Amino acid sequence: MNDTMKKRRLWRDIKANKLIYILLLPAILTTFVFAYMPMPGIIIAFQDYKPLLGPWKSPFVGLDVFKRIFSSRMIMDSVGNTVYLNVLNLLVTFPAPILLALMLNEVRCSIFKRVIQTVSYLPYFLSWISVVGLVQTILGLYGPVNDLLALFGGSNFERILFLGQQKYFIPTYLILNLWKGTGWGTVIYLAAISGIDMQLYEAATIDGANKLQQIWHITLPAIRQTAILLLIMSIGGLFGSNFELVYALQNPYIDFEVISTAVYKIGLQQGDYPLGTALNLIQGLIGFALVATANFISKKVTDVGLW
Amino acid sequence: MRKRVTVGGVINGFLLVLIAAVMLFPYLNVMATAFNDGADAALGGITIYPRVFTLENFKVILKDSKVIRATMISVCSVVVGTLFGLFVQFTAAYAFSKKSFPGKKLITVYLMIPMYISGGLIPSFILYSTLKMLNTFWMYVLPGMFNFYNMIMMRTYIKTIPDSLQEAAKIDGASEFTILWRIILPLSAPILATVSLWLAVGYWNDWTTPLYYIRSTRLQNLQYLLMRVLKESEMMTRMLADAIVSGNLNNLKVTVTPEAVKAAQVVITTIPIILIYPFLQKYFIKGVMIGAIKE
User: Residues in domain ABC transmembrane type-1 (chain B) (predicted)?
Assistant: First the structure.
């Protein structure tokens, strides 16, 4: 009796919300087709995939494909490169927006502040390939950077082909990340700073605290929560990779693969579907484990989590 | 607050000007190179203004039929993609702004999972191939139509619209659909503007979709063309050869070099964003602020 009543009420609730379900249908359907339907395709990582047979009839080979991953020099290098590049990138790009936000916060003239903000946000909205286009010009043999070096380098200065040398690859990568993301990264910190009670600063001034002491004891503690959260979240991304920038910077003189470029080259360019899928799967699993761990730590430390 | 000029303040201001200059300089330099005679630019020393002004670099590009086509593809994917994306996002966001309905939690989880787990590049490629979607315009638009983050941003905004408005309309006999169409949609204009800007920038900047899924040269967009110009030297040689054969380069006093044309291509690919962005900046920021508020 109770059960049927519950069922009836549920049915009534569903009918009453008919429009809601109709409105959700586009999102549910597109998510199903484009996000869920590819998932079973992961099984080709365990197969000797034959395009003519498709992912359902190709013969299974167990973990052979994964063995190939661990015996491939190029793939293992790409895994190491990915982590190395991400750690460096985190060290460089994490503190930068905090510093810039603190500097912007000290500006009293609002027009000046707005102009600086507008200019520094701009690179964020350009595509990575456009950014590489810009850098090809300014780092060109007869571009402004070489011009500047030539100015100080004297008469026997040899112009440097920055983008064609392995040793400049990582510095270029890091600088471009700084250039593109630092300005936009300040938005969230400035929001946190704007929430600080001005009376705290006034009280500190009366107590004789100077500007640096005020930043250290008032501003920084106020944005600590935000910073920790962003830091934890970026740890979750340590196994991901910026395909667009690495691929765009690659050329015949640069030998540097990350996981995502390896997946693209092995999978789509060389057509080795199982190997590409297996590598992608490993990246996905470790990445997910990192995000989950980061989320767990975040909840413990800051009470804020993704889920 | 009193305005006092301090030494620290001056140093801070000076550093910020320096940072802004570094942010802006690459773009100005590429502009200057793009508007400069190629052979002259090859001597070096171009800073932020063209030394020998010319439009020939742009003529090489703008008279190329590939570029015109690619621009059209880019514009179409921005327009169609933004409209489709807004529709899917807004309908879902409105549904989720409701306090409760059976299955709300389940559907939320269902829509959220793909943010963390995906089939990956190759299973997607195989699926698109099975669906006969490879090498079609729809590749640009359909796969990325729903975005959980954008949807949450919209939902958060819709929730701030006072319930009393909806209740008043209900008492006046308005149907649920009328409320959605006549009250919620117009009141959501600011968030719709914000989300459509993000969507539009995303579609305009997309070049991995054609890289992965589109072979047909007729369907390549402007960003992809830029990628080829930057990465394949024969692409540039061909463009220059085409321009010479078709007589588009008639001013013989001016020289055009691959470097200068590259710069012009960068300018053409980025100019819509550079022109639009400063005026719409506040909408972009608003989106981040709303997105930052959880629940």
Answer: 67-279
Sign of torsion over alpha carbons B171, B174, B179, B183: negative
Residue ranges covered by each domain of chain B:
56-292
Same domain, A16 and A71: no
| Residue B240's pLDDT band (cuts 50, 70, 90) | confident
Two structure tokens written together for A5:
């009543």
Which among B47, B121, B226 has the least Cβ separation from residue A144? B47
The model's pTM: 0.90
Q: Give the separation between CA B38 and CA B256, rounded to whole angstroms.
A: 5
Could you read off the pLDDT of A79-112 as tens digits, one per residue? 999 999 999 999 999 999 999 999 999 998 889 9
A14 — contact with chain B (CB < 8 Å)? yes
Asked if B291 is an interface residue toward chain A (Cβ–Cβ < 8 A), one would say no
The neighbouring-strand residues paired with B36 are B53
Q: Are residues A17 and A49 in the same domain?
A: no
Q: pLDDT tens for residues A173-207? A: 999 999 999 999 999 899 889 888 889 999 998 99
The answer as to whether A217 is a domain residue is: yes
- Boundaries of domain holding A202: 40-126+180-302
A55: part of which helix (H) or strand (E)?
helix A54-57
- A196 and A230 part of one domain: yes
Whether A41 and chain B come into contact, CB under 8 Å, resolves to yes
In a domain, A167, yes or no: no
Nearest by CB to residue B281, choosing from A121, A146, A277, is A121
User: Is A74 among the domain residues?
Assistant: yes
Q: Cα distance from B263 to chain A (closest Cα, Å)? A: 7
The answer to whether position A169 is within a domain reads no
Which residues of chain B have a CB within 8 Å of the CB of A236?
Answer: none
The token pair that represents B69 in the structure block: 């086509």
Same domain, yes or no: A193 and A94: yes
Same domain, yes or no: A114 and A6: no
What ipTM was predicted for this assembly?
A: 0.90
Per-residue pLDDT tens digits for B114-147:
988 888 999 999 999 999 999 999 999 999 999 9
Domain count, chain A: 2
A19 and A86 in a common domain: no
**Helix ranges, chain B (H):** 7-34, 38-41, 56-62, 65-97, 104-112, 121-130, 138-141, 148-159, 163-171, 176-179, 185-187, 189-205, 208-213, 222-231, 233-245, 258-292
